[in-house]
Amino acid sequence: MSAFTSDQVALITGASLGIGAATALEFARQGARVAVHYRSSRTQAEEVAAEIRKLGGEAELFQADVSKADQARALGPAVLERFGRIDVLVNNAGSLIERRPFLEIDDEFWREVIDVNVSSVLWVSQPVVAHMKERGSGAIVNLGSIAGHNGGGIGAMPYAMTKAAVTCVTKGMAKELISQGIRVNAVNPGVILTPFHERFSKPEQMRAMVSMIPQGRAGRADEIAPAIAFLASEAASHIVGESIEVNGGMLMD
Questions:
Q1: In the chain, what are the domain boundaries?
Q2: Which of 14, 18, 123, 210 makes an SS bond possible with 194, Cβ 3.0 to 4.6 Å?
Q3: Which of 4, 27, 159, 230 is catalytic?
């Protein structure tokens, strides 16, 4: 049985690769129409949309750099213009940008990491929340990280700081918005085999991280996506302000 009806719409940010792509496909399998957001990876986003259509689902592409306030705030209205509604928002877009030693962190880099990982949640969510408030229902799932608990790996402190902030933002949003019928939760992935780690983690770093996972392996994007879809579904109707840790036992919170 599908978790979503065929008229419901899920907006997934950063849906061209990794966890975002797996999440877009999961929502399509669960019956929703999907707004596939991307920043620069259009070819990969088109492949995700094509896969959704092969499944018999409906998907449209939406481009925006969510680290820029004007583009992020225009994303929800663009989806609403096309689909007429947004039932689920998954704030997945984010980046480590690069690993940078503590003494080399300058103001510009600090702000860049904050904007892509935290400010984007505010900017994308506000117009969507206004729409959900009018409808009296909606679900938002923010993507945190195990890094928000442990400070991240070497050179990743700014990223880890933003993911800790996402947990706080999630709880604050949840407290305020539940009275308006909008549930807000988060999923915190552990070490997941995605292009993220291919880009930012050297093989020896990956081996070190995987060695700390009791399950003995890194996770897959398709093991994160179902947790996100669950939190957005009616099966999680009484779960509010929660953060689900998906990390193979690396952190048991």
A1: 9-245
A2: 18
A3: 159
